[in-house]
Amino acid sequence: MLAVAPPAASWVEAHSALHPRGEDAARIAEIGWVLYVGAAVIFLAAAALLALALRGPARARRLLGRPALIVAAGVAFPVAALTALLVYALQAAASMARGPEPVLRIEVAGELWWWRVRYRDPAGGLLFETANDIRIPAGAPVEILLTSSNVIHSFWVPSIAGKLDLVPGRVNRLRVFVPEPGVFRGLCAEYCGAQHAKMMFDMQALEPAQFEQWLQAQRQPAKAADAALRQGERVFQRDCAQCHTVRGTPAGGTLGPDLTHVGSRPTLAAGALSNNVGALAGWIAGGQHIKPGNRMPSFGQLSGEELRAVAGYLDGLK
Q1: Is the preceding peptide bond at 115 cis, omega within 30 degrees of 0?
Q2: CA of 41: how far to CAs of 45, 79, 84, 86, 101, in Å?
Q3: What is the pLDDT of residues 75-95, one digit of tens each?
Q4: Which phi and psi angles does 131 have, rounded to 5°?
Q5: Which pTM does this prediction carry?
Q6: Closest CA to 300 of 280, 283, 286
Q7: How deeply is 151 buried, as exposed, middle or buried, from its count of CB atoms within 10 A (0-12, 13-18, 19+)?
Q8: Cβ distance 215 to 147 under 8 Å?
Q9: C-alpha span between 253 and 22 (Å, rounded)
Q10: By Cβ atoms counted within 10 A, which residue in 84, 85, 131, 279 is the most buried?
């Protein structure tokens, strides 16, 4: 019912495995439908035979009670049907591992509770780092390298590809291919602690030219703060630079997300808030109320003027 409800149609199309928008998600949906239809047909056939055995003519009941039919329907048919479905599913799954060489590699590390995203050049060098915001070129294969330095997480964009775990000490590789532009919601699908439910991210597939523009913009350091934002920059350098990086400034902390272009991201706190000045101020002043247990303390000691200033400065980091 949710899948066809008009008010929810746009949400479902962007976030449902039943409405695939990626190559691998389409194969997974196909496997699911084949298994579902196969199971439904077998269930209906078994129900019909049961009804016939209970209420059918005496001759039909005698035929259904023959040992040969019981062996055929209870042993031979399940073995043949399940073997055929297993072979089909394994072949379809194996095809997802094959594909052209990726044009882009992105490293995603699961943190508590957000996603650290690093874009790499073909030689493995770091281009830039962002957080909770993954953008890829539409119509091109992309490889995502999944790691974790804390607990097991699970990376999942339901309408793009299947789930894959982020395991400490390992690098797992997920190939994604999105034919057309779109915006998709991803999430952690493995319970990882108190704020597991608020560990989301956005994946955007952009036209190749638009993606290249975004890529070049993200590689640039932050623009120098103008006069109206300098008070906020001073507050940030005093209270936030120990944990956060803003490239082009003295701020070089690595414990928290890189905030060089935080103003251009669609959400804050791994999808917990929409990104705007008010949400930035609320997160800085009361992050422990919005997302209890996260590693960023609440800065309730800031005056109203300081809070507005630092929020405005961060919003200006486009």
Answers
A1: no
A2: 6, 16, 15, 16, 40
A3: 888 899 889 888 888 887 777
A4: -150, 135
A5: 0.83
A6: 286
A7: middle
A8: no
A9: 36
A10: 131
